[in-house]
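Continuing from yesterday's entry. The apo prediction looked reasonable, so today I'm repeating it with MTE included to see how the binding region is handled. Same sequence as before; SMILES copied from the compound registry.
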Amino acid sequence: MLIKRRLGWELPESQATPESVFFNRRAFLGAGAGLIAGAALPQIAAAQGTDPTLDLYPAKQNPAYTLDRPVTEADLAANYNNFYEFGTSKDVVGAAKRLQPRPWTIAIDGMVEKPFEIGFDDLIRKIPLEERLYRFRCVEAWSMAVPWTGFPLKALVELAKPQSGAKYVRFETFMNPRIAPGQSQRWYPWPYTEGLTMAEATNELALMVTGIYGKPVPNQHGAPLRLITPWKYGFKSVKSINKISFVAERPKTFWEGLQASEYGFWANVNPEVPHPRWSQASEQLLGSRDRRPTLLFNGYAEQVAGLYKGLEGENLYM
Ligand SMILES: Nc1nc2c(c(=O)[nH]1)N[C@H]1C(S)=C(S)[C@@H](COP(=O)(O)O)O[C@H]1N2
Ligand SMILES: [Mo]
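Holo prediction written out below.
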């Protein structure tokens, strides 16, 4: 049980990992419990049926990301969700219990040096985790502020080794109507897909999330792996990802497929550009009477405004 089993499709670590990431990881393990304990703990956890990544939490907080508002209560965030695979109400906790986040394999394909699949529990140990406090703004004009745990998407892009022709990253959620009843509703363009330009994907803010409030991410928040792009409306932050593709053409996203006149590819937060059916000027903080003015790029203009130079002709804010 303590011997790490390597499945046929798994690359030896030194092959799959760029050197910088590989050496970071060794430094990371060396600083922590040590190589032997670091490798054994998850195996024991898996055998006991507990989450095999518990030993990675809580991760060290990155002090570069600070908030201008209180952190939303964990219970509130965990009980007010959008996860259409499990229903269109905000109360999906019960239905989402059917999601099985183990075993979980992520396919990396498209325009990469060599497509591969990787188990989530292997992936999470290839890149050091950190905690970040981010604002989060849903297109429906409510917002929250939460501590996410994860790693920069940029590190995963480096691991994937995209070819120069790759211009976009496309993310896909699992597809299984037997566990996700919403996926039986044929008028939705399942599976849920999202996309970013390469420049967006390699921006320091784009985070692959594995945890929230210092623990592995629970099902309703998108276990075991989701995206968080805090300068964009929440629907870009696709949950329960099992495929990441590097492509030349701009991917058609789930919400665009459903209603292109209301939900576009870019979806950058902008208080001055209303949704066709409501204003985006202010937002309701979850769990508070406080309505706040919405901030351009959700307050992250300094980090991301430069990504959109020369794209002024596009529908950047819906
Ligand atoms: N697969 C999937 N991802 C999704 C959604 C969804 O319905 N399915 N909803 C999106 C929307 S609209 C929002 S606001 C956020 C909500 O994330 P949270 O429930 O963790 O707060 O998830 C996004 N990611
Ligand atoms: Mo949303």
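Comparison notes:
- The longest helix spans residues 35-48.
- The chain has nine helices and twelve strands.
Will overlay with the apo model tomorrow.
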